[in-house]
Amino acid sequence: MSSFSYQNQKKPKGFFFRICIFPFLYLTLASCNFKNKDLNQNELLINLSLINIVSNHLSATELQAVVREKIGILPNQIPGSEVDTLEKISLGKKLFRDNKLSSNHVQSCHTCHPLDGNSAGMDRQSTSRGTFGQIGKRNTPTILNVGFLPIIFWDGRRDTLYNQAIDPFVNPLEMSLPSDTELLNRIQNDSSYNSFFANAFPESPNPNIDSIRLALVAFERSLVSKSRFDDFVESNVQALKKDEMDGLKLFLEVGCNNCHTNNLLGGSQFSKLDSKYSYNPNDFGRSEFTGNPADNFFFKVPPLRNVALTPPYFHDGSVSSLKEAVKRMNQYNLNRNINDSEIELIVSFLKSLSDKTKSN
C-alpha cells in the first residue's frame, strides 16, 4: 500500500486561503453565537459561504447552496393553479386575446402583453398606448410569472389576479370599456364563447363576471417561466457560465437581493424613486392609491426574471439599456459606483434569468 504524500497533491485554487482564514472565521462567527441564540449551524455555514463570495473562491456547488438559501427555488406551479382545468385556461386565453373586448375592437390584453415568439409578456414600449391611442402612464410589466406576485401594478393597488382581472378592460387608458357590464354583454352576445364557457364551467355555463375573472386567472397562472438560472438552482451546477456565476456572486455581494428578494428576485416590496434622475414628476406612485403623502414616489420593486427581454426599464420606461439600469440602481440604492466590468458581469447573470424558450 503506497503512502499518502500530502505535499505531492495538487492544491485547489484558494486552498491556502481557505485553510488559513476559515478556522478564524468559524471561531469568530461561532463566538457570536453565544450572544445570538438564533444563529444556528446552517446560518454559520451560509455566512461563511457569503464571506467566501467576496474572496471569489466559492465553488459552483457552494454558490448553489447560498442561492437556495438567499433566493430560493421557483415552484413549477403557481399556488392555486391546481384547480385550473385545461378548459378554464383555454377560455382565459381566448378572453386574453380577444380584440372585440376593447372599446373600438382593436386591442386585447395580448396587445400590451404579447407572448408569441420571443416576446416575454410586455410590448417593449416606454408606456403602452390605449385603444384610442391614449398614452399610458406607466411601463407595462411582464405577465410571465405574474401569479406568484403578492403585489399587482406598480402602485400595488391590487393584491390578487382575481381582483385585477377586469381592470384593463375598463381602464380609460387601456381598453376603455365603460363598465364591466359592457364587457359581460359583449361576451354574452358572442356565440363563439358558448362552448368555451360550457366546457370550463359546466355547472354554470352562462358567462358572468366571476367566471370571466376565474378564466383569466387560470390562463395567467399557466404562464410560468423557467430559465437556466432555475436549472442551476434546482440541480445542474453546470447550467451557468463562469461570467454568469461571477455576476451572480457580485449580485449577492453588493446587496442587490436586499430589494430584489425571494425566488422572483423582486415584486414583494416598494422602494422610493431616485430623485437624482429625471422621471415623470406628475406620477406620485403608491400614494395615488393609498392617499398617504408618505407614499409619494414609492413604486413596486420589479421582479428581475426575464429582465433582459423586457426593456425599457423603471416605472416610466425611461431607461432603454439594462447596463444603465444596473448602474443607476447601484449608485442610488446601494450608494456604490460600479465599474464597467462589474456591470457586464451582473448583466450576464441577469440574462441567465430569461425564459429558456426565448433568446436575449
From TrEMBL:
Binds 2 heme groups. GO terms for cellular component: periplasmic space. Its main location: periplasm. It is found in: Periplasm. Its cofactor is heme. Binds 2 heme groups per subunit. Residues 242-354 form the Cytochrome c domain. Heme c 2 binds at C256, C259, H260, M329. Heme c 1 binds at C109, C112, H113. One of its GO terms (molecular function) is metal ion binding. Keywords: Heme, Iron, Metal-binding, Oxidoreductase, Periplasm, Peroxidase, Signal. The keyword Iron applies. The keyword Methyltransferase does not apply. This is Cytochrome-c peroxidase.
